[in-house]
Design a protein that fits this description.
- The protein has 298 residues and is α/β, with parallel strands linked by helices.
- It folds into two domains: 203 residues, Vaccinia Virus protein VP39 (Rossmann fold), CATH 3.40.50.150; 70 residues, rRNA adenine dimethylase, C-terminal domain (Helicase, Ruva Protein, domain 3, Orthogonal Bundle).
- Helix content is 39%, strand content 17%.
- The protein has twelve helices and nine strands.
- It has a seven-stranded mixed beta sheet, with helices on both faces. The protein has a two-stranded antiparallel ribbon with strand order 1-8.
- Helix 6 packs parallel to helix 8, helix 9 crosses helix 12 and helix 11 packs across helix 12.
- The radius of gyration is 22 Å and the shape is elongated.
- The model has no long low-confidence stretch (mean pLDDT 95).
- Bound molecules: S-adenosylmethionine.
- The site of S-adenosylmethionine has 22 residues, from strand 1, helix 3 and strand 3.
């Protein structure tokens, strides 16, 4: 599985990255969120934090020129790397990853790929590890897509905008707390493992970055009668986060009347003036279960 070290040109530094970019006349595409890692220590640390082992199957989203893919190939049983930019494919297949026999490159938009089918074919449908330096313009759709399509997952270790990592990790009563925090915490246990300065990328992004590890729950930490309905309530609460829930949720066309909401809030021991930003995941689950029981069609 491991390439002959003598033949590998590791890319985790500015010199070798520039060499490859010039060799192929590659220019960065802003629309694809291309900021390549150029620091081998950071790459090693991400792979180490991901806990990838020799028996693991890894899905990498957006390999770029293959900088982190090289290290993933050396640590995992098998790697599938999904890259949208067709100009990067020959660089990966004919050059930077050509020494590795345990990698498959797929030229596709990750948001359009049937990942469940991929896992069935490559990992007998068993939980996988996802490792990626994500394109920041689609961080949330990628993460929510993985969770909501019930892809079998062990963990997701990803580089994201620092601000987004903070939002995933925080609890109630903070300004960053919102629908993303609750969604991520319903499916996983988030932990920021590394902050990464802009100088570790080429070109430099104009935001700070962080690596967050989402260790997926075997079973959600709360019991919910209707998952979609709970997330509809959560989204409604934060769409108008400065309003009380009796306004934001009732205004959201979910078929919930003010009286029903007031009764449900009371049953949960919550005040009628409460705002969504004060509720824990447990409280949202309880509230949504109370409302589900009241509404005959749920
Ligand atoms: N992994 C490389 C690294 O760390 O140097 C590149 C990371 S760069 C931040 C994001 C990568 O995701 C780019 O290579 C970009 O072309 C790719 N990408 C962007 N949108 C994508 C999509 N929808 N599906 C798959 N790959 C995508």
């Amino acid at each position: 599985m491991m390439a002959d070290d003598n033949n590998v040109m590791y890319l985790g530094n500015p010199t070798n990255t520039i060499k490859i970019l010039e060799k192929y006349g590659f220019s960065f595409q802003k629309k694809y969120g291309q900021n390549f890692l150029i620091d081998s220590n950071i790459i090693k640390k991400i792979v180490q934090e991901s806990g990838v082992k020799k028996e693991d199957f890894v899905l990498e989203i957006g390999p770029g020129i293959g900088t982190m893919t090289q290290i993933l190939c050396e640590n995992a049983r098998e790697v599938v790397a999904v890259e949208i930019d067709k100009k990067l494919i020959p660089i990966l297949t004919q050059d930077t990853l050509s020494f590795y026999d345990n990698v498959t490159i797929i030229n596709e938009d990750i948001l359009k790929l049937d990942i469940n089918k991929l896992i069935l074919e490559h990992n007998e449908g068993k939980p996988i590890k996802v490792v990626a330096n994500l394109p920041y313009y689609i961080t949330t759709p990628i993460i929510m897509g993985l969770f909501e399509s019930h892809v079998p997952l062990e963990s997701i270790t990803i580089m994201v905008q620092k601000e987004v990592a903070d939002r995933m990790q925080v609890g109630p009563g903070t300004k960053d707390y919102g629908a993303l925090s609750l969604a991520v915490q319903y499916y996983a246990n988030p932990q920021i493992v590394l902050t990464v300065p802009a100088s570790c990328f080429m070109p430099r992004p104009n935001v700070d970055s962080a690596v967050i590890k989402l260790t997926c729950h075997h079973k959600p930490p709360v019991s919910v009668k209707n998952e979609k309905f709970m997330f509809d309530i959560i989204r409604a609460s934060f769409n108008q986060r400065r309003k009380t829930m009796t306004n934001s949720v009732v205004n959201a066309n979910l078929g919930i009347t003010k009286e029903q909401l007031l009764t449900a809030l009371e049953q949960c021991g919550l005040k009628s003036t409460v705002r969504g930003e004060a509720l824990t995941l447990q409280q949202f689950a309880q509230l949504s279960n109370e409302l589900s029981s009241m509404l005959s069609n749920l």
